[in-house]
Amino acid sequence: MIFLTTGERPKAAAVQKESDGSEYWASWIMAYYQRHSGMRFSDIVENGLTVSKVLSLYILHEADESKFVETADQLIARNKQTRMSKLSLIRKARGFTQQQLADQSGVKLRMIQLYEQRQNNINKAQTNVVLSLSKALGCEIEDILE
């Protein structure tokens, strides 16, 4: 303890922080996007905005944050459209056709098609509909919600 013995504080060596590297920017902008979007980090990554994808967008590091947000929103929207719905994944894993699921659950075929195509939001479906689908598929309600 130099201060206690001499009364002088030691001079700290200047430390160069890696505050302008691509990894620093990627972590900062992902935290910014998480706060801006209100999405959980796991949901952001699940929807295709991975760390490697963000690093590939490093060219945006000098742009306003809104440009990254716009790009990330487009990427996530595109990935959501191309990714199969949870209802579709579970239905196929159970070996059901859409018609068989409709017959088993009592939910109209057209509604199942609209949920799987994400033209209707299954998260906003009536409780009895989601319950019927989950019972027919032998899964929990949360498993088919997006």
What do these coordinates show?
The chain is mainly α and 146 residues long. The chain folds into two domains: 22-82; 86-144, lambda repressor-like DNA-binding domains (434 Repressor (Amino-terminal Domain), Orthogonal Bundle), CATH 1.10.260.40. It contains ten helices and no strands. The protein has helices spanning 2-6, 22-37, 41-46, 51-56, 65-82, 86-93, 98-105, 109-116, 127-137, 141-144. The longest helix has 18 residues, at 65-82. It is elongated. The model has no long low-confidence stretch (mean pLDDT 88).
Overview in brief:
Helix content is 62%, strand content 0%. With 146 residues, the chain is mainly α. The protein folds into two domains: 22-82; 86-144, Orthogonal Bundle (434 Repressor (Amino-terminal Domain)), CATH 1.10.260.40.
Rounded average pLDDT: 88
| Head-to-tail CA distance between termini | 58 Å
Number of strands: 0
**What is the ordering of alpha helices and beta strands?**
HHHHHHHHHH
Any low-confidence stretches, pLDDT <50, length ≥5?
none
Content-based structural category: mainly alpha
Shape label:
elongated
Largest sheet: none
Number of domains in the coordinates? 2
By oligomeric state, this entry counts as single chain
